[in-house]
Design brief:
Layout: E1 2-8, E2 21-28, E3 39-44, E4 61-73, E5 76-86, E6 149-151, E7 160-172, E8 176-195, E9 213-215, E10 231-233, H1 234-237, E11 247-271, E12 274-287, E13 314-315, E14 322-331, H2 340-346, E15 349-358, E16 362-363, E17 366-367, E18 382-383, E19 389-394, E20 397-399, E21 404-405, E22 419-423, E23 427-440, E24 444-453, E25 467-468, E26 485-493
Parallel strand pairs: 6-11, 17-25
Antiparallel strand pairs: 1-4, 2-3, 4-5, 5-7, 7-8, 8-11, 9-10, 11-12, 12-13, 12-14, 14-15, 15-23, 16-22, 18-21, 19-20, 23-24, 24-26
């Protein structure tokens, strides 16, 4: 029995020149208008008594651990354990944009339409009010009024997960061991962007009235963007923070996940020149969304309604229901101890291989046109409840478009974020290595390797186009893995 307790503390982030931004949700804005209560604005580290840290210190990260190993018989062992494990708030994206720097960089958006339909842009002078310039922290709560803002929430805390497992290990004849067990985890406070300036759901009942142009109460107080015009869409004035367009909390620590898995493995130690390891996992991963992985193509997804986060809980695009891996190594005994030409050519060879087979990820369907006018959420189509997967999935038609229809205007689609029963192509591939070690005069060893990846040249199709309304909806247009690759290496070592 092992018991432990770990304490983690990571100081919040600081910048040498204090170029970090937060947001005060309740502060009275210096921008006021008749009939509107405008609250909320950007705040800056090291200004007006605010700490130079971009988040409040998080000092209560206690992580207990428990482990238990029990020998039932001389060949049977039970193992179980669990604990809390804390992550880090660093390394959550490249560049500084993920840490809240509004005010220290800015962009100028072209106002193409006031009602979302009628174009007003003049391409000979697309920026009649000029280009925005960074103002730093000198304007305080008046920074970037009428524009998009992004910030780091001071209430963020370190992400953590609870992990637990239970395993039974059994020794078998022929130097083999079999293990079967259960593993689970619960992720809490994972960093993920969050939009705070979406319309309240009740406002969508106004329908076309949301696009009605009304006198702009901020006219003359804002000089750039749609709120600098003489009129403004009614929808803008109904937003929680009408004096901004989008209000985005970067990498806010709010998301969560759950993972449950049945894990098994059969391993043979190296005897008679042969060893292997076979493992199989049957699992389920649920979350609120996941970012892209370098080198891996995941199905497209979007948050539809920031006011109803429970509807975004679904199978993760990284979920793999089945995963089987088999690897084996065989040391060729022929001429192993022979010297001279025979030993030099035929001795010291080793053959190894890996067979990987696992399920594809769930697919999420979005709409080509966002007609809910929620001023913040995305759009998914309506779903009729039938399987969205084609009867015989093939590259030219992987999804069944008849399972979907466009959602009515000013309404959110009924399709879930991902479909557990509609997945991208599975992976099934074999990699093989041939290696030869040759001893040269006791002091040196020469190794030759010939490696073949995806030796059977088995294609894995990339996820299909998942944008309903696109002419290529449901069509696979790319390969998701590499074709057969062969590489050779020669290494001399002492």
């Amino acid at each position: 029995l092992n018991l432990g307790l770990r304490w983690d503390y990571e100081t919040p982030r600081k910048d040498r020149f204090d170029k970090l931004t937060n947001f005060d949700f309740t502060a009275a804005s210096p921008l006021q208008a008749p009939g509107l209560t405008t609250r909320g604005g950007l705040t800056f580290v090291g200004v007006n008594g605010l700490s130079r840290y971009n988040a409040d210190p998080d000092r209560n990260n206690f992580a207990p651990r428990l482990g238990l190993a029990y020998r039932v018989t001389s060949k049977t062992v039970i193992r179980t354990g669990g604990g809390l494990f804390y992550g880090s708030s660093t390394g959550i994206g490249t560049g500084s944009g993920a840490f809240g720097i509004s005010g220290f960089q800015t962009s100028t958006n072209i106002v193409t339409s006031l009602d979302g339909v009628t174009p007003i842009v003049n391409w000979s002078n697309p920026f009649p009010q000029g280009l925005n310039q960074p103002t730093g922290s000198r304007l305080g709560l008046a920074t970037l009024l009428g524009q998009d803002v992004a910030f780091f929430n001071r209430g963020n805390r370190l992400p953590y997960s609870g992990q637990w497992n239970f395993n039974i290990q059994q020794e078998l004849p022929f130097a083999m061991v079999f293990e079967v067990g259960y593993a689970g985890s619960r992720g809490i406070k994972w960093p993920q962007n969050r939009q705070y300036n979406q319309l309240p759901d009740a406002a969508l009942a106004e329908g076309n009235g949301l696009r009605t142009q009304t006198a702009n109460p901020f006219r003359g107080q804002i000089s750039v963007g749609p709120l600098a015009q003489a009129t403004v869409a009614r929808a803008q004035l109904l937003r929680p923070f009408p004096h901004f367009t989008s209000v985005t909390s970067q990498n806010e620590h709010w998301a969560s996940s759950t993972y449950h898995a049945l894990e098994s493995r059969l391993e043979k130690r190296l005897t008679n020149n042969f060893s292997f390891l076979a493992s199989y996992t049957y699992s389920k991963l649920l979350d609120y969304g996941i970012g892209g992985f370098a080198g891996e193509d995941l199905s497209g997804q979007t948050f539809q309604n920031w006011n109803n986060m429970s509807a975004e809980w679904a199978s993760s695009t990284a979920d793999m229901t089945h995963r089987f891996i088999l690897n084996a190594v065989y040391e060729v005994p022929f001429a192993r101890n022979r010297k001279g030409l025979v030993g030099g050519l035929f001795g010291g060879w080793q053959i190894a291989g890996i067979w990987s087979a696992y399920s594809g990820g769930p697919l999420g369907v979005t709409s080509a046109v966002n007609n809910n006018f929620s001023q913040g959420g995305g759009q998914r189509p309506d779903w009729n409840g039938q399987s969205p997967l084609a009867a015989n999935p093939r590259p030219e038609q992987w999804l069944d478009r008849t399972a979907f229809s466009n959602a009515p205007a000013y309404a959110f689609g009924t399709a879930p974020r991902t479909f557990n029963g509609a997945r991208s192509d599975r992976t099934d591939g074999v990699d093989i290595t041939f290696a030869k070690n040759t001893r040269i005069r006791e002091r040196f060893q020469l190794q030759f390797r010939a490696e073949f990846f995806n030796i059977a040249n088995t294609p894995r199709f990339a996820p299909p186009n998942v944008v309903f309304g696109n002419a290529q909806f449901g069509v696979v247009s790319a390969q998701g893995n590499q074709p057969r690759v062969a590489q050779f290496a020669l290494k001399l070592s002492r």
